[in-house]
Amino acid sequence: MGDKCMGPLSFPEHLNVRMDHLAKRIAISHFTQPPSSICLGTIMVGTNTVVSSIQHSLSFGILHKDMVTSLVDRWELDEAQFQQVVHWRCLAKACKQASSPTHISKWVSEDTATGLVMVRRHKQRDSSACPWCNAENKHLVHILSCPQQSAKETTQSLLAELEHWLIQEDTHPQLTAVLLHTITHWFNDPYDGNPILYQADEHLLKAISHQDSIGWYAFLMGCISTDIIKY
Ligand SMILES: [Zn+2]
After folding, report:
1. φ, ψ for residue 50, nearest 5 deg
2. Within a 10 A sphere around the Cβ of 71, how many other Cβ atoms?
3. What's the pTM value of the predicted model, to 2 decimals?
4. For residue 131, how far is its CA from the centre of ligand 1 (angstroms)?
5. 174 and 141, same structural domain?
6. Per-residue pLDDT tens for 81-92?
7. Domain, as residue range, for 121
8. Which of 80, 114, 144, 226 is least surrounded by Cβ atoms within 10 Å, i.e. has the fewest?
């Protein structure tokens, strides 16, 4: 279906188009002439050399860079810092293991069926207002922090599930407590800044401050600080 009918491309669609475009460029520049020897030459994606598993490396190199650029633009972050803080392998692993990887990529690219997305793209709704509390322009941040009672009950039950999972995965009790405290605080008011932590050792404080630097919305989107993962 033409995009003139459907509105602007979503982020994943934009990536697909860009991936096609770059793959064609690579094919033209590297494979139109017969190779002079067995070696096909060096393939570069940005400044990285592709050394093995060409298909995987190409798609990772191209899509990862575009995803990072898009997220730092949208979340107003420093690109180098974002690249450095996030444990990317962990996000990739979560996507791979998820029962619905598309669901995760939709969350990360903010293409979930929020009021804004439904109105902008799918024309499936006349208003972008929250159906629970009628707040305008229902964005993902609002879905997670909607003050209406039934929305609060949902987030409470998700937090209980998260706590259960963290315990099951043998997460350090101090980290479990800090994560639940910080996320609860964020759900109550995502724009209030970060809560004060009274019970955290030096390493945990450092891990949390790294997450603070890219924000807890990024955490909820799966962009988790390496120091938190390794704590
Ligand atoms: Zn609401």
Report:
1. -85, 115
2. 21
3. 0.67
4. 7
5. no
6. 999 999 998 888
7. 110-145
8. 80
